[in-house]
């Protein structure tokens, strides 16, 4: 088996501090701003009163949206992880960013139909599963500095958690409770999604594709058991048998007589 490079990194994956690695890490940081659906819990606390006044819903009915979001997110995590393992992280995080932006738009334009409100929060929970993909990418980007990189991402998550309530409060004061979801949705569509499309990559998936491209081609054909069940196989075998054993006479002797005639004499 071929040895890995000195840093233990598969071929095709850049160094810890290469420009490509840092660009991908920045895209992951941007995606994780709203990749964690926990901000929705803070949003519920802010919009509880105005939403109840506008639609006539009780506090328990509004708070149940967080429960629905939690169950939807938990139920999708395994499928998200399986998808990342099979197809890579880049396509999935882009889809999740689109889903998060769409969910926030649904919430921004909520109607008195409470099922729409619940559906929006459930989609937020599912889209929050993108954190699984971001964690995988960050782990594959860094080897020697992996611990420090994960610490930076944890710090970023803490800072975003601290800043998000302030941002949502300002959006609510300026634009009303719908402005919270409208502002975050625009942030997702206009900032996060372009950065993911431009900078996001999955180094392990790139290395796997490069290895597959350099592998010898696999020839098409039948297995042994399949070949034994076909008529052409037996026809060819019979023809080869006749060709090898059809004429068993000894070669002709000098004088134009074969060996048997010379022996009879």
Short structural summary:
With 265 residues, the chain is mainly alpha-helical. The protein contains twelve helices and no strands. Helix content is 75%, strand content 0%.
Secondary structure layout:
Elements: H1 19-35, H2 39-55, H3 59-87, H4 90-108, H5 114-127, H6 130-141, H7 146-175, H8 177-199, H9 203-214, H10 224-228, H11 231-245, H12 259-264
Helix pairs in contact: 1-6, 1-8, 2-3, 2-7, 3-5, 3-6, 4-5, 4-8, 7-8
How confident overall, as mean pLDDT?
80
CATH class of the largest domain: Mainly Alpha
CATH topology of the largest domain: Growth Hormone, Chain: A
**Second rung of CATH, namely the architecture of the largest domain:** Up-down Bundle
Straight-line N-to-C gap: 70 Å
Shape: elongated
Total strand segments: 0
Largest sheet: none
Query: Please, how many helices?
Result: 12
- The parts where pLDDT drops under 50 for at least 5 residues are 1-14
Oligomerization category of the chains in this entry: single chain
Strand % is under 5%
Q: Summarize the helix and strand pattern as letters.
A: HHHHHHHHHHHH
The count of domains is 2
Q: Radius of gyration over alpha carbons?
A: 33 Å
């Amino acid at each position: 088996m071929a040895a890995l490079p000195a840093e233990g990194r598969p071929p095709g994956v850049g160094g810890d501090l290469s420009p490509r690695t840092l660009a991908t890490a920045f895209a992951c940081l941007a995606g994780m701003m709203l990749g964690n659906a926990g901000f929705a819990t803070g949003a519920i606390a802010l919009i509880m009163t105005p939403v109840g006044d506008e639609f006539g819903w009780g506090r328990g009915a509004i708070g149940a949206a967080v429960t629905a979001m939690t169950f939807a997110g938990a139920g999708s995590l395994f499928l998200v992880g399986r998808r990342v393992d099979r197809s890579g992280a880049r396509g999935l995080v882009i889809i999740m960013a689109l889903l998060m932006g769409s969910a926030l738009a649904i919430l921004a334009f909520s109607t008195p139909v409470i099922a729409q409100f619940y559906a929006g929060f459930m989609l937020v929970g599912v889209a929050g599963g993108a954190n699984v993909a971001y964690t995988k990418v960050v782990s594959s980007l860094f080897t020697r500095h992996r611990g420090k990189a994960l610490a930076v991402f944890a710090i970023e998550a803490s800072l975003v958690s601290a800043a998000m309530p302030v941002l949502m409060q300002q959006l609510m004061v300026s634009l009303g409770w719908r402005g919270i979801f409208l502002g975050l949705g625009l942030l997702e569509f206009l900032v996060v999604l372009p950065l993911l499309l431009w900078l996001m990559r999955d180094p392990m998936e790139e290395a796997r594709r490069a290895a597959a491209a350099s592998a010898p081609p696999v020839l098409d054909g039948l297995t042994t058991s399949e070949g034994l069940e076909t008529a052409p196989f037996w026809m060819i075998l019979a023809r080869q048998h006749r060709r090898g054993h059809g004429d068993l006479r000894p070669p002709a002797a000098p004088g134009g007589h074969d060996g048997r005639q010379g022996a009879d004499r």
